[in-house]
Design brief:
70% of the residues lie in helices and 0% in strands. It is mostly helical and 277 residues long. It has one domain. Helix 3 packs parallel to helix 6.
């Protein structure tokens, strides 16, 4: 008779082995993703009304009042049409950061983050769900703003596939950035600190409302090291195919930015930075 302390029960169909946390759990990802999206669609009026109204005001003020007094900005484009890619990127930047940062910070604030950390789900699944939901919201918002722009100015998209690619990549990149901010932040005030102090100035200095050629010579070199400028430039190229926009540089900057953020997120979960204390 075998010793009870050393006996090993064989695996049987009636007693399957426990799932490894390292195995991908699509059901958990979908549940967390759906929870974030349901909250978005529950308040979709408020979520979309503000950016749509803001976009309309930009076209009224900049496109009509100011743009009507300007010569075509570049290669015969109307100023209002030229604004469209920059306005979409501006909204995508800010909303990706806000949605992702608030989405992960609120569980920290309420203490429910520990339920996620102790559940049999991997860190990768948490990131995919939260960042994927924030990026989805930003893509929807970008498309809604694009539809709004058609009501005010003529818009052409010469490279629709590349336009969607840039929109998705930028949405995921800045959602990852917002996810990092949400983990780093220890108060609601800190959630707005980096977006307002860093991202918004970089966006306004990144050619959202003008071409880099319009800047004084001394500022052009500064603009060239601004990564936001390359993101906006590549996205604008997808619309108008402007010769001055180097799409390969823009795509490379976007991918490098995305990979760097993924590395930071991996380090955060590996060390438990501001998650386990």
């Amino acid at each position: 008779m075998a010793d009870a302390s050393t006996a090993v029960l064989p695996a049987t169909p009636e007693a399957p082995a426990r799932r490894s946390v390292s195995a991908f759990n699509g059901h958990s990802v979908w549940a967390m993703y759906r929870f974030q999206m349901v909250r978005f669609f529950r308040t979709i009026g408020e979520s979309l009304a503000t950016p749509v109204i803001t976009t309309a005001l930009y076209f009224v003020v900049f496109g009509s009042a100011i743009g009507g007094r300007m010569q075509p900005v570049v290669e015969g484009l109307q100023y209002g049409s030229f604004l469209v890619p920059g306005l979409i990127m501006l909204s995508v930047f800010t909303n990706s950061i806000f949605n992702a940062s608030f989405g992960i910070y609120f569980p920290k604030f309420t203490g429910t983050i520990y339920e996620l950390l102790s559940a049999p789900i991997s860190y990768l699944e948490i990131v995919i769900a939260f960042v994927g939901a924030a990026a989805t919201k930003s893509v929807i918002l970008g498309l809604v703003i694009l539809a709004t722009a058609y009501l005010f100015v003529p818009v052409q998209i010469l490279h629709p596939v590349e336009m969607v690619l840039f929109l998705v990549l930028v949405s995921f990149a800045f959602s990852l950035f917002g996810f990092i901010i949400g983990i780093w932040a220890q108060s609601f005030e800190q959630l707005n600190f980096i977006p307002m102090l860093i991202v918004t100035p970089l966006t306004f200095l990144g050619g959202a409302f003008y071409t880099v050629d319009m800047l004084p010579e001394a500022w052009r070199g500064v603009a060239m090291i601004n990564p936001v400028m390359h993101l906006i430039s590549g996205f604008r190229w997808a619309f108008f195919g402007l010769e001055g926009d180097n799409v390969m540089i823009s795509l490379s900057v976007t991918v490098v930015f995305l990979l760097a953020l993924l590395a930071v997120v991996a380090w955060i979960f590996k060390t438990g930075y501001r998650l386990k204390n």
